[in-house]
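help with this:

***
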Amino acid sequence: NLLLDFLYSRNHADLQEMKQIKSAVDARNSVCHSAAIFANALMHSGTTVDTFLRENLDWLGRATNWAKFSATAGLGAIHLGHVRAGRALVAPYLPTAAGGGAGSSVYSEGGALYALGLIHSGCGEGARDFLQESLRNTRDETIQHGACLGLGLAAMGTYDEGVFDDLRSVLFTDSAVAGEGAGLAMGMLLCGSAASGKTEEMLSYARDTQHEKIVRGLALGMALTCLASEESADTLAETLLLDLDPILRYGGMYTLGLAYVGTANNKAIEKLLHFAVSDASDDVRRAAVLNLGFVLCASPEQCPRIVRLLAESYSPHTRYGAAMAVGVSCAGTALPEAVQLLDALAKDGVDFVRQGAYVAKAMVLVGAREAKQAPLRAQLEKVIADKHEEPLAKMGAILAQGLLNGGGRNVTISLRSKHGFPRMHAVAGMAIFTQSWFWHPLTYFAALTFQPAALVAVNGDLKVPVMSVNSALPPSAFGYPAPLSDKPKKEATITKKAVLSTAARAKKLQAEKAKAKAEKEGKQADAMEVDGEVKKKESEGGEDQKQGGKDKDKKEPEATSEQLDNPARVVPAQERHVSFLPGSRFMPLKKGAVSGILVCSDDTPGEDVELVAAAVGGGDDSGAKKDEPNESEGGAAAAGGNGGGGDGDEPAPPPAFNFEP
């Protein structure tokens, strides 16, 4: 609740960027249209701000079939973590048997169930039963697909036998679409369990079915069960790597990568490099290179060096894998070596390689200084505005915009915790996000990798007191980028100079003509007068320009430090420059900690505490409307509940009503 309130109140996503993307994208191109919807969801992930969707309903309504599924699911990414009102937010789109609107599309219904899982990912107790019931009550494969993905997200890592039985029942219907979702959901449910009995059952069915989508879902599902298992996963990995089916070998690459995530294990790196250059399947080689990023995510400086030669491979699939490997391992680090390698791949002649380079570069630079992000922003704007750019490359640029501005520009991407351990949800989310190569709706899993760049100091009652911390850097060092609408227009400046120059030249020419005419007519006195006026005007104009130049050069010197109000945005590169003010009433119990939610001791516990009010209906810098969805039922910002510590009056009790089951 505290982090949700932080993301809402500090939201700095620029809606002007989305408007530019919308105007540059041809609505008839479904790939770029869907990419714009994905970018908006990632850009506002966790902020609960859906202003862009509300203002562009007609444009959004052009989505059909699976694009409609993705558009509806985007609500889940935007309202990620808003568990108090999660069900109410997607209620208009839920299946009719569960209270949705009559006549709604099965694609909207499936997308709504997927969205509900995204909202409750990591804390799914409130939605798990409902998603199970929805899965049991439908026979439509589209709704089953959405319900499986939602159920997997809500029950991730719980190893619930009842949920596994329901997913297995859907899998055994042998429906390609529903079966793929069931396979992925099984992997999410058993994430990190290394349950050999369950994986044997999944492998057996993968070998029996004729549907590639089911095999691919089960292959990645088996890989997820081995997350951080290391040697315990060696048996399954060897079985998959030696299989004749390239899709199962593809799953074997992910099994190795996820099992040894963050370990930099030499044996795993050696096997992945071997398959990256020897396997006959493009998909397997691409996956082998990509999973080097997972293995090396704890030592990101090594990854660009290891994949540098692979980035020059003749195979575009290998080059794409190298780009994504650097993006996964170096996410949020802004390493110069990674940026340099991706700059070269961004000029590749193959469209999907450029797509991977744009996305990976955004992952590397998310949360970095604006000076480092500015060249990428300019590059992405140019690619998106280019009407002759290939759709796949343009899609990558649009997604990169969403990732670069993720969570209202208040998040970073991290696969590890502060203590160096793998974050299960983030690693699983990144692995499934890379499957968007095959299935675009899986793009929303990138939201699971976001980690709020927040410092939230709380007292013993877990309330947020009014206080400040010191940042020993100028405000511009890690400040938000200037909104696009506030940037000066170059054309206006150039036009102004041209007008002034032309006017001065015209006046001078007119004065010279008048002087010549006066001389010709013998009126010397008049000529001298005209000459004096010209000189006077030129001297006045010169003095005005000189004075204007001096005023322009005079700038207020920027402060060398600033105080950040609680809760504050503190990105990882900024942490070493942030400290609590000496003599502050509230000091963290964990010495030296300057990020995350920090419990603080109170030096004067007997005195009254001024608390930070919850950001209800305000604090939205993107221009979001005051009537955010379902604020009457808790509010977009009020999802923080009493986490913001507001002192307002208690709300009146609701009127009496008759409840009939």
